[in-house]
Every structure is written in C-alpha cells, then in structure tokens.
Design goal:
5-stranded mixed β-sheet, globular, 7-stranded mixed β-sheet, alpha+beta, homodimer, 356 residues
Chain lengths: 356, 356
C-alpha cells in the first residue's frame, strides 16, 4: 500500500490505523495470535481503555459493590462445521465462556447467549445445539439467564453463530491473573494439547485421512475449584484456545515480565495428534484446545495442586511442562527433544481459521 | 408439511418441534413478534428453563450474593446498513444493552462486546464503529471491560455483527418488571414512535423518497435514574424495540394479566414517520424504536414521573398514552381517532428485517 492510500484510509479513522497487514481485516485478525493482538492494541484498546480491559486476561475483573469481585467475559463462536467429533458449537459456546470466567479463579454463575441464525436453518439443528448447551451448562452448574435471537438472510451467517457472555464471582482471597507469574513457579498443563483444533479440521475433511481424534471441549470450572481448594498459591490460569499453548504462554510472559522455559519432552500430545500435525506441517504448541488449562503455581505447592488436578475428570493427565525464570524477560523458551533451547514465539497469521 | 415429514424432522430434535411455521428458521423468527416468542417458548425455554429467563423481561435478574441484585442481558446486532441517519451499529450495540439493563431499574455498570468481522472489512469502518461505541458508552457512563473478535470468510457476516452483554446493579428498593402492571396505572411513552425503523429503511434506499428522519438510538439509563429519583412507583419499564410499542405492550399485558387501553390520539408520531408508514402500509405502533421507553406508573405518581422525564434529554417529549385496566386480561385495546375501540395484537411475521 502506498503512502497516499494510507493517508486516504486514515481520514475516516479515529483510532491509530492502518494495521501492519494493510487496511483490511484478514482471517489472521481472528487467530488469537500476533494480528489479533495488534487489532486489540491499535483499534480496541485506545478508545475503550480501562484497567479491566488493559489487564489482558480471559475475563475482566470488576467490583460492583465493596467486597464483591466479578469476572465478566464474552466470546463469539463461529466454528465450522457446527458439529464435530467430541462436541458442537453449543457445547463450545458454553464451555468457552465458563472457562474464561474460571481462569480468573471465579465461580461461574450465569451465562447469557446471543444467537445469530441464518434464514433457512433447520429448526432441528438449532434444537440439537440448544440441547447441547443445556447439557454443558448443567455439567458446569451455570444457568443461562438471558438470551437474544437475530435472523439474517440466507448466506449471511453460515448456519449460526453463538455469542455467550458470563459472570462469575471471585472468592475474596483468590488473586489470579496473567501478570502474577513469578520466577521459580512451575508450569502445569491439564492434559494433551491440540485435540480440539485437529478434531475440527478432521470434521471438515481437510486431513485427507481418517482419525479418531475428538475435541477436548469441556467446562473446567470444577477442575479450577479443586485446584483452589488444594492451594491458594495458583498464580496464573489460562485456557490455551486460539493460538495454542505457545501463544498463551507468550501472553503470560509479557504480562508478568518473566521468561517461561518449557521442556519439550514433558509436553503431552496424543500420538494421533502428533501424526496429523507432522503431516500438515503444524506445531501442536499452536493448535487450539477447548478443555485444557495451563496453570502457573508456586513451586512448593506444585505437588498438592497436581494431585488435586489429577483427581478430577478433566485434569487426570495433568503434568508439569516447565518453569518460570527471571530472564530473558517476556520470552518463552523451550528445551527441545535434542537438548537445544529455542525461542517459542506467538502465532503469526492464521493457521486454522474458525475452530471456535 | 405432511405428517411423515414432521415425524422425520422430529427424530433428531430434543425440544418440542416443529415450529408452527415449518421446520426451518425464517426471517420472522428474528422479528421480536409472534414467531420470535414461539421460538423462545418451544425451543429455548424448555431446556434452559430458570426463573430469570422465564420472567421474560429485557434482562435476567440474578442474585450473586445476599443483598446484591444484578440485571444481566445480551443482544446481538445485525443491522443493515452499518451506518444510518442518527446512528450506526456501534451506537446501537451499546445503547441496546444499556437500555435492556436499565429497563429493570438497574444502573448499568459494565458491558462486554463480541465482534464477528468479515474478512475484507475496511479497518477504518471498524474503527468508526468502535469509536461510536466508545462515545455511546461514555454518554451512558459504562465501561467495556471484556471483548472478543472472530473473523469469518468473505460473505459470511455482511460486514460485521456485534453482540453486547451488560451487567447492571439494581438498587435495593427498586422492583420493576413486566409482571408488575396494576389496574389504574398510567402508560407513558418517552417520545415519538417509529423513528429508528423508518430511518434504517430510508438508509437502505427502500422508501423511494427522501426523508429527514433520524434514528432515535440513545442510552436511556439517565432518563430511568431521573424517573426513579422522582418516584419508586414505577412498575414496568420496557424499550419498545423490535415489534414496536404494540408488541411490547402485549408482552406486558400477558406478563401482568391485565388489559392495556391506549388512546390513539395521544400516541406521538412524527409527521414524516406517519407519512412514510402510510405510504408503505406500516403501522407506527409496530415499528422499532431504539431510544424510547414505555413506563407503567402508579396513577398518583404519574405527574411527578412525567415531570422528571420531561426534564431529561431523551424524555422531553414524554406523554401519557393510555392506562391499565383489569379486563379483558392479557389484551391491548386502543381507542381510535374515530372513537371506536380495536384490539392491538403482537407483530405477526416480519415487517422490517435487520433493523437492530
């Protein structure tokens, strides 16, 4: 783009523009990676700026009354296809928002759901999705207390989109956030990585071969409760969705001003996911998860927390995958299988569009 | 649809189906009228059932801690075009949710916003929308504390959709809801009807003639505060958006088990809106508003409330348009210009798609 065009595009713009990728939205702006961050920092944060949003966590923390801290979050869901092995857009919409709220240590209480339906959608398809939302909400123990439905003309919503927003209550003595990782802390993941992204890809028929991989989409709030019952020295919780574990850990390293050192040998990946990733040229560290969390925990409490995690349905395969160091600050490094150390960067561009 | 097809369609459905209109979603399911109600009652309420949702108000009321009552709401916005005289999708998204929360008498505190963007969207268009959201949020005095962005392929989101969710705090002594209208109460509207719907239609070039009509889209929370400062005998508040005043009053008549009697002579409609409606065969009672409210107030407090409303920016043209009677229950009647009385029913089908 030449300078004249840049100036022209800037005329109507109130926020700092253009984006580095040019003057148009590309799929990568929805990836959760570098372009998503740029969109937030250049376009959303300047006008909306406030402490809750600037914190950059999965949910905003607000205090509506003295002594009451709420975690509030929102996620739009546009996954294609609507149904995939292990889940569907309804289960995803409930779990995604339950998990965002839970990652602040909050007990999710209420969800609201906004539906954008495409004219011509089968009512029975919608009923299946709604029933799946109900089952996931029951499992998580949350009520859906408000909703909205809009209908757009055929071709304008690819079936349906669901936006869910959640409100959770943070217990008074719980303080969890992306900026609270400290040198010496241990990094735990609650199970295998990459299952969701590869399952959705397989459902699209894009793998070119059969696989038994199922999405891990699940509500993690009961897992978080078990962790907090075991120890209050859980410093950071995050669910590595879009952009995968690599992008999530980079966010935390930046927020906390620390280095996170991963051990490639200890990172759990199912053989079928690893095989699919190798054939497609993907790195499982960047593939989305929808039922996993990464926890950064004080070293001396790690065993207690791990034991609590392993006692739960969705944390039975929890393992330590790394530790926090002081330097080099704001970096994620990985000790590889062959003993070298490499930088693990955030996702650049878009690897797997519309997986959530 | 014959019986065999009905049975076939029912096989995969978990909720009571099919809908009366057949087995597919039609534009009317997003109208806010009869088909929307049917969708909620047949498809969403059975699985999601809980007291907050069943109340059928603009926002759900929840109690996260003793003495704390929150109003939570969500609205997806799919208006076409994105910009129209008097507003745009950003202002609409903020005001729509602020108003839903305010209609429970709550002070709106926080919003969250989920964006679904179409690949290829101009970043400067998004920046204009975001800036408009910021200005509307500032006017309402609410912060946008969490957000999410997804990108879908070209052709899958008609530019952009915005879903906003809101949380408001209900003062301890405020009790407002659609079920609280009582015989003898007066019905007030805060200004002229139909401006928003006709302005959007004009922006689409569908009127076939020029008009100066602007959308009324505005945050009504300060108006509500002024009303509640004047009297706590405000029984019902509702913003007559999709489906217009007629549909909104029918909802209230049903929730409260009362009759609402309107006086056609006192219903305020701008001459330009009336002219447009007459040419198009629309009834202004069914056209959407985005900056108006209807209030049902104890008779003896009506003057105080009216005076308070008229002292505010968005309530300066407030008038009494009718009263509540005991019978015929669950009905809206109107004394017409010519002195007869007719039934005012809910919107059937879809009059103006995608106006919010």
């Amino acid at each position: 783009m030449n300078e004249e065009n840049q100036l022209k595009d800037l005329e109507g713009a109130v926020c700092p523009l253009p984006l580095s990728h040019g003057d148009r939205i590309v799929m990568g702006h929805g990836s959760g990676g570098r372009l998503s961050h740029e969109l937030v920092e250049h376009l959303f944060l300047p006008p909306f700026d406030n402490p809750a949003l600037r914190a950059g966590d999965d949910a905003g923390v607000v205090q509506p009354a003295p002594g009451i801290r709420l975690a509030v979050s929102i996620d739009s869901h546009v996954v294609s296809p609507l149904f995939f092995p292990g889940g569907d857009i309804g289960r995803l919409a409930v779990c995604g928002t339950v998990n965002d709220v839970a990652m602040l240590g909050a007990t999710p209480l209420y969800l609201t759901a906004g539906f954008i339906l495409e004219e011509g959608l089968d009512a029975s398809t919608l009923a299946r999705v709604v029933d799946s939302m109900h089952i996931a909400a029951q499992e998580a123990g949350v009520a859906i207390v408000a909703g909205d439905t809009k209908v757009v003309q055929r071709g304008n919503a690819d079936g349906l989109y669901i936006t869910t927003s959640g409100v959770g209550m943070i217990p008074p003595d719980v303080h969890i956030g992306g900026a609270l990782a400290r040198p010496g802390d241990r990094v735990i993941v609650s199970g295998t990585l990459g299952d969701h992204g590869i399952a959705v890809l397989a459902a699209r028929g894009e793998l070119g071969f059969q696989t038994e991989i199922e999405s891990d989409v699940a509500p993690l709030n009961h897992l978080v409760s078990a962790m907090l019952a075991a120890s209050r020295e859980v410093h950071v919780l995050r669910d590595p969705t879009r952009g995968g574990l690599a992008t999530t850990l980079n966010e935390i390293a930046r927020q906390s001003g620390v280095c996170i050192l991963l051990d490639e040998n200890s990172i759990p990946v199912r053989p079928a996911v690893r095989a699919a990733c190798e054939m497609l040229g993907f790195d499982p560290l960047y593939v989305a998860n929808e039922g996993k969390l990464v926890a950064i925990v004080a070293q001396q409490e790690t065993d207690k927390v791990l034991e609590a995690m392993r006692s739960t349905r969705y944390g039975s395969e929890s393992v330590i995958v790394g530790e926090v160091q002081a330097a080099p600050a704001k970096r994620v490094l990985m000790k590889t299988f062959i003993g070298t150390t490499r930088v693990v960067d955030v996702l650049a561009g878009e690897m797997l569009p519309r997986i959530c």
